[in-house]
Amino acid sequence: MIGKIIGALVGREIDRRDGSAGTKGALLGMAAAGGLRRLGPLGLILGGGYVAKKAYDRRKASRRV
To answer: Which domain of life is it from (predicted)?
Structure first.
């Protein structure tokens, strides 16, 4: 369950980067969730870290403006 949530968040971050349709982000999120699950706990840590870094950067940028 946590892997699916992290995969969805990774897909959302990827989709925000290029700004195209949500379908691409959803498909990449599914692929990312599968890949992260195969890596086991390390994959969940890496995916969670990626999402946390993006959220931290976004929050930091919004405070500057």
So the answer is: Bacteria
Number of residues in the chain: 65
**Element housing 63 (H / E):** helix 41-64
Six-digit token pair at 56?
């931290």
Question: What pTM, to 2 d.p., does this model score?
Answer: 0.59
- pLDDT surpassing 80 at residue 62: yes
User: How is residue 39 annotated by DSSP?
Assistant: T
Given a contact cutoff of 8 angstroms between Cβ atoms, the answer to whether 36 and 6 are in contact is yes
pLDDT at 51 exceeding the cut of 70: yes
Number of domains in the chain: 1
Could you list the residue range(s) of the whole structural domain that residue 42 is in? 2-64
